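[recover] target loaded
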């Protein structure tokens, strides 16, 4: 998984995708570009390849500047290694119709607004867990992507931003 960042008009923006409606899982959900690892491929190569396949992001334009916390998902039983990449400018991207309905360029400032973020507890005690939500215009970002965004925002602001409950 890759969290591409770039600066435009004084704002740092993150590239996200809205997954295509015809997909079997996570259809219509907002996520970072990413996907499954091919045999013999290291995880960083997977992140760069998947970003290229999904949105046409040139791997040579991405400077990897770090990793977010690794994450295991409950529903899809995936293990995610999120990389953060810096771009020198807004990328010219094209969504792959097989996987992506829409490419979103979301300012980090929009995600930091008070009325955008909230948490809910899902499941029954003692197995309940916090679920993270960001409400942006036209979309709800939640689940693993919400958790990774909260981690990204904490690192970007150098704070314990919205520490988990």
């Amino acid at each position: 998984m890759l969290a591409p960042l770039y600066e435009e008009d004084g704002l740092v923006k993150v590239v996200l995708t809205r997954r295509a409606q015809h997909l079997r899982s996570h259809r219509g959900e907002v996520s970072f570009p990413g996907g499954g690892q091919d045999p013999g491929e290291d995880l960083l190569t997977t992140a760069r390849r998947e970003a290229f396949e999904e949105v046409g992001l040139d791997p040579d334009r991405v400077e990897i500047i770090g990793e977010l916390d690794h994450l295991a998902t409950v529903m899809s039983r995936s293990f995610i290694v999120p990389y953060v990449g810096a771009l020198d400018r807004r990328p010219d991207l094209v969504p792959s119709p097989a996987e992506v309905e829409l490419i979103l360029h979301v300012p980090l400032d929009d995600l930091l607004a008070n009325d955008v973020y909230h948490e809910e507890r899902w499941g029954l005690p003692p197995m309940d867990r916090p679920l993270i939500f960001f409400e942006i215009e036209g979309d709800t970002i939640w689940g693993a992507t919400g958790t990774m965004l909260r981690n990204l925002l904490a690192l970007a602001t150098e704070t314990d931003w919205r520490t988990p409950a």
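[recover] notes: The helical segments are 43-55, 108-112, 143-157.
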